[in-house]
Structures are given as C-alpha cells and as structure tokens.
C-alpha cells in the first residue's frame, strides 16, 4: 500500500511577475446566461489588463473561435440547470450539478448569504498570462 505525502505550502496565488504586455488573447463566450457571462467576461478582461495585456490585444467573440493568431484563447461558458436534460448529462459528468446560485457566486455576482463570491474570470485571465509567459520562457530553454 502506497502512502501519499502531502505537498506543503503550495502557492496557488497568481504571481504578478508575469508581463502580459506583448500578448494577444482571444476570449470566446457563450451567448446564454448573459448576466453571469458578462460578469465573468469583465473579471477576465480586468485581470488581463492588470497583467499588462493591452485592451486592443484582447479580442472577444461570441460562440465561434476568433480568427487570427493568439497566444491564448479563454473559453467562457455557464451550465445552469433548466428544463432540457442535457444539463443533467453534462453536469453530472463534469461538475456535480451546479445551481444558478453557484454560477452567480463563481461570477462574483452572487446574492446568497455567503457574499457575492469570487469572479473566476479573474483566475482565467491570470492563468492565460502565466501559462503563455511560461510557454515562451520554456520555448527559449529557460526553466
């Protein structure tokens, strides 16, 4: 029987040492659940710009993949329980049945007693800059 040793002190916070000023980022979003998508999109754009990505280098399109050359593409969508069965099939396999309240909290616009939640779009924007910066560094042989 193998024993799993816990990793201590993993830093999961975004490092501001990544410079996104030379990046071009595409964002693709769903057209449904507009209030949640709008909040996630705002969080993503805000974080990208905080990381130095220029506004003109952030291309946002609905549904289809943006054309052109991008350093990263961020896909934003929300699955909320409704009357169509596809929700049950997808959510059980992927997320464990999120409810609308959870989606709103994950977009930072929740209404529950636990506060508005955290806008996960910010994490996606930061991750795009960090991964693209790391990919460029690694491609140059710097580890």
From TrEMBL:
<comment type="pathway">
    <text>Cofactor biosynthesis; riboflavin biosynthesis; riboflavin from 2-hydroxy-3-oxobutyl phosphate and 5-amino-6-(D-ribitylamino)uracil: step 1/2.</text>
</comment>
<protein>
    <recommendedName>
        <fullName>6,7-dimethyl-8-ribityllumazine synthase</fullName>
        <ecNumber>2.5.1.78</ecNumber>
    </recommendedName>
</protein>
<dbReference type="GO" id="GO:0009231">
    <property type="term" value="P:riboflavin biosynthetic process"/>
</dbReference>
<dbReference type="Pfam" id="PF00885">
    <property type="entry name" value="DMRL_synthase"/>
</dbReference>
<dbReference type="InterPro" id="IPR002180">
    <property type="entry name" value="LS/RS"/>
</dbReference>
<dbReference type="GO" id="GO:0009349">
    <property type="term" value="C:riboflavin synthase complex"/>
</dbReference>
<dbReference type="GO" id="GO:0000906">
    <property type="term" value="F:6,7-dimethyl-8-ribityllumazine synthase activity"/>
</dbReference>
<dbReference type="InterPro" id="IPR036467">
    <property type="entry name" value="LS/RS_sf"/>
</dbReference>
<keyword id="KW-0808">Transferase</keyword>
<comment type="function">
    <text>Catalyzes the formation of 6,7-dimethyl-8-ribityllumazine by condensation of 5-amino-6-(D-ribitylamino)uracil with 3,4-dihydroxy-2-butanone 4-phosphate. This is the penultimate step in the biosynthesis of riboflavin.</text>
</comment>
<dbReference type="InterPro" id="IPR034964">
    <property type="entry name" value="LS"/>
</dbReference>
<dbReference type="GO" id="GO:0005758">
    <property type="term" value="C:mitochondrial intermembrane space"/>
</dbReference>
<comment type="similarity">
    <text>Belongs to the DMRL synthase family.</text>
</comment>
<keyword id="KW-0686">Riboflavin biosynthesis</keyword>
